[in-house]
Amino acid sequence: MAQDLSTYAELNAVWQARGQAQGLKAPLPPDVSVIAQKQGLESGQLPLQSAEEAFDGGGLGRSFDFLPDPGSRFGMRQLNWVEMIYGQGAVSQRAVKSRDMEGTRYISWRTVDQPEFVPTFDTARPNVERAWKIIAGRELARKRAEEIAAKPAAKESLEGAVAGDESLQVFKIGPFFWLSPQAASSGVPQISQPAGIVMPGNEFMSAVFSLQPGATAVAFNEPKTVCYCIRLIDVEPPAEKLKERFVETKSDPRMTAVAAQDEFSRSFGTWIEELESRYQLEWKRKPRR
User: Fold this and answer.
1) Predicted confidence (pLDDT) per residue in 58-70, tens digit
2) Which of 70, 147, 211, 259 could, after both became Cys, cross-link 232 (CB 3.0–4.6 A)?
């Protein structure tokens, strides 16, 4: 697939340089969905979005790749996907390979680079209305989830608590970790992405891992677009075994260090936000990712 995309990029560049002025037809882009289907891969397309929106969306937006770098300690350095797509010198129509902490590999390309502009009211209104509805609906969603969690039937199963309500879906997931198992080897803290949960964050994981078996809790995902009513079935392995493993990490504290790094980063971010609020600090540049 990468070769097909690269070939098209070369042909398109030649057409823009010569063929367009000569009235020749532009080369047809490859049908990525067909190629992906033949190769047994999944295809998709992101809407036009900023680097910040892509990063906050997770998945592809937080993927990365390792590039040779003779000047670094190990001869390699990590380059984030956002830098490859939005960074200085990034080229449209060029295939970019990346991976995420879960081991998923991506091939992506930037189709168009739209300059920043101030949209008209009519253009911005649908997005503003959608954002307002999401924000306004959060308290309603939390209240509904809390009502479900408070039902006596929820102590036995969530299926019984929502029986008869076809608007709600109950599913079982797990077991899963708070942090991705690959975090220790990479040194980069990354929240695991259990199948069935849309973009879980620390709020979700904190709610899950604070529960005792049979207890319920309510938590949003990271972008606060989905509110979950959670019932913990069991913890594997038992707490005693987890304590033993924690003690064993004294000889190899990488995982503990990664977890501590994540906590430190969040605490540091909270501290910075409090300083900005207290002293009314206003940045004159976009925050670095």
Assistant:
1) 888 888 888 777 6
2) 211
Helix ranges restricted to H, the chain: 2-14, 32-39, 51-56, 81-86, 121-150, 158-161, 183-186, 202-209, 239-248, 254-278
For residue 207, give every residue at least 6 positions away whose Cβ sits within 8 Å of its Cβ, in sequence order, or none.
217, 218, 219, 230
0.70 surpassed by pTM: no
Q: Which amino acid is at 214?
A: G
Please, what's the largest Cα pairwise distance for the chain? 75
In the β-sheet with 64-68, what is the strand arrangement from edge to edge? 76-80, 64-68, 96-99, 105-108
Q: What are the tokens at 226?
A: 């989905």
Tell me the C-alpha distance between 57 and 66, whole Å.
21
